[in-house]
Amino acid sequence: MHHVRIFGKQRLTRGGLGAVSGLLTAFAALAAAEVVAGMVRPQAGPVLAVGGAAIDRTPAVVKDWAIRSFGTDDKLVLQVGILLVLGALAVGLGLLGLRHRWAAAIGVLLFGTVGAVAAVNRPDATGVVDALPSLAGAVAGGSVMYVLTGRLTRSSGSAPDATGAPAWDRRGFLTAAAAAAAASTAAGALGRRLASSAGEEAAASRAAVTLPVPASPAPPVPRGAALRIPAVSPFVTSNKDFYRVDTALVVPKVDATRWRLRVHGKGVSAPVDLTFRDLLRRELIERDITLTCVSNEVGGPYVGNARWIGVRLRDLLREAGVRPPSRGGPADQLVSRSVDGMTIGTPVEDVMDGRDAMLAVGMNGEPLPLEHGFPVRMVVPGLYGYVSACKWIQDLELTTFDAYDPYWVRRNWARAAPVKTQARIDTPKPFARPKAGTVIVAGVAWAQHRGVDRVEIRVDDGPWQDADLAAQAGPDTWRLWSWSWKAVPGPHTLTVRATDGTGRVQTARRARTSPNGASGRHSVVVTVD
Q1: Local mean pLDDT, 10-residue blocks, the chain (529 residues)
Q2: Is residue 315 within 8 Å of residue 283, measured between CB atoms?
Q3: How far apart are CA 347 and CA 76, in angstroms?
Q4: Is residue 362 helix, strand or coil?
Q5: What is the DSSP code string of 203-222?
Q6: What is the DSSP secondary-structure string of 48-111?
Q7: Contact assessment for residue 333 and residue 345, using Cβ atoms and an 8 Å cutoff
């Protein structure tokens, strides 16, 4: 009986070390892949490649749920999820290796192949060289798996120990495991250092940028455009607080000294090729413009207002010989391409109709932050970001909507997506318990390119009452509002609606964010004490 207990403990210990073998295998594979990705291209690493492929294949409803649930941390959650799944699979392979050593090693190679295929099929792939990080990781991981499980497997000709259990090399396993862990740690550190060098170059090029004084500066913000009410959004959203919603698992880090922009395609009689320095030498404009993400739910946070500096897109397109469809131009879609492979389609008519559509180089008085598109991004007032706000832009192609479907249209989002009129209650917060008496209800409203002419509040099923509007800075910015409510005790529902500059009242019809933006009226429930 004593021998049976010892044998059972040894089997348990051996199984645990098999799981450890799997985890060390995954560690070695990722570390080796990170080193090679640092030499090839950081975005070609297996976690980023597989994560990007997962994002591309995720249904819109799931993406909206992720953004709604995790906000701007959705990409971190995805990467953690990938690592957890990888860890679980690695443990399984480690246990398999106790009985089938070769099968476990081959399994690691197969997973590496999956990463390689994902990498070379990414939109921003540079060729078969992008497969190298995953393949290197697979070879390193497969080798570690083979060696470690070999130390846990009875070798040919070895005798059982005194309990009758198969003999395995404890000391050899621990030595090999320690060596694998040390080598993987060193490789991981080297890989991160190589990857960070690209980021350092981008940061250095940004630090060296001095934005020229715009030829057409933004008018001063009108007195009274902001409200000094706690919890109400400021008129200008700071760069650190500005929302970020995109598909990039890691922020692309572009060296401005190497950046180029090409304008080409249908109806372009004089193709344009610009460097960042060329762009800064052109006439710049400065404008206050509110941007809104199509993933913003009614009352959601993915909207912000900033002061942008850039080059008029209309002027650049005219220089290339482009005419809008209303003037006989053959192209009705402008496809912008990012360095990470994202494609965004914008109506040519909209960017050339006189609105302040621009290639932005500055945000709130400084060069674009890396996470907001440095060195250059598109800004088009009145359109949701998925059809206009291409970050890290490097290519503009004139084409037609019939000829090409950009990224989001291929995923069943609408081709045209003007921003819908919306109003949001910032204070009081949902389920707040204000005291009876005068309660300030306040928030923001937006209807870019049309402006906001009126905001109304309703308490429960009572009549609509006009809110006080802050000064309007322009039709392309949001407008703050407030209303003094004589609150009486009990539960109440506050609902807000806005009317845009054309006289159209915000609809009450509820709609999801897909395919062209959410609609409905924001309301909050409070209990007055």
Answers
A1: 44 76 90 89 85 79 75 77 86 88 90 89 86 92 90 60 58 88 91 81 94 96 93 96 90 94 97 97 98 96 97 97 96 96 96 97 98 98 97 98 95 94 97 96 98 98 97 96 96 98 97 94 97
A2: yes
A3: 33
A4: strand
A5: HHHHHT--PPPPSBPPPPPP
A6: HHHHHHHHHHS-HHHHHHHHHHHGGGHHHHHHHHHHHHHHHHHHHHHHHHTT-HHHHHHHHHHH
A7: yes
> Which residues pair with residue 289 across a beta bridge?
306
Let me know if 89 is exposed, middle or buried by CB neighbors in 10 A (0-12, 13-18, 19+): middle
Copy the structure tokens of residue 248.
């990039």
**Nearest residue to 374 (alpha-carbon basis) of 209, 186, 192, 488:** 209
**Alpha helices (H) along 286-445:** 313-319, 348-351
3-state SS class at 303: strand
Residue 323 sits at φ, ψ, to 5 deg, of -120, 140
Three-class secondary structure of residue 26 per DSSP: helix
- C-alpha 47/C-alpha 84 separation (Å) is 11
Q: In angstroms, rounded to a whole number, what is the distance separating the alpha carbons of residues 325 and 336?
A: 18
Summary count for the chain: helices (H), strands (E): 10, 18
Return the pLDDT at 166: 54
On the 0-12 / 13-18 / 19+ scale of CB atoms within 10 A, 287 is buried
Residue 144 identity (one-letter amino acid):
V
* CA 312/CA 286 separation, integer angstroms: 10
Contact (Cβ atoms closer than 8 angstroms) between residue 360 and residue 373: yes
DSSP 528: E
Q: Which DSSP state fits 147?
A: H
Distance (Å, whole) CA 258 – CA 321: 26
Q: What is the pLDDT, as a whole number, of residue 167? A: 60
- What DSSP letter does each residue of 249-290 carry, written as one string? SS-----TTT-EEEEEETT-SS-EEEEHHHHHHS-EEEEEEE
Q: Could you tell me the pTM of the whole model?
A: 0.85
Region for 321 from its dihedrals, namely left if φ exceeds 0, alpha if ψ lies in -120 to 50, beta otherwise:
left
CA–CA separation, 279 and 359 (whole Å): 9
d(C-alpha 408, C-alpha 111), whole Å: 29
**What is the C-alpha to C-alpha distance for residues 420 and 350, in angstroms, rounded to an integer?**
16
Helix extents (H) in 289-329: 313-319
Q: Any idea what the Cα angle at residue 492 is, between residues 490 and 493, rounded to 5°?
A: 170
DSSP character at residue 477: S
Confidence (pLDDT) at 160: 52
Q: Left if phi > 0, otherwise alpha if psi is -120 to 50, otherwise beta: which for 157? A: left
Which H/E stretch holds residue 173?
Answer: helix 170-207
The Cα diameter of the chain in Å comes to 94
CA 331, 332, 338, 340 torsion-angle sign: negative
Coil, strand, or helix at residue 490? strand
Say what the alpha-carbon torsion angle 395, 401, 405, 409 is, to the nearest 10 degrees.
110
Measured CA distances, 130 to 36, 40, 45, 48, 49 (Å): 10, 7, 8, 12, 9
Six-digit token pair at 239?
Answer: 């760069």
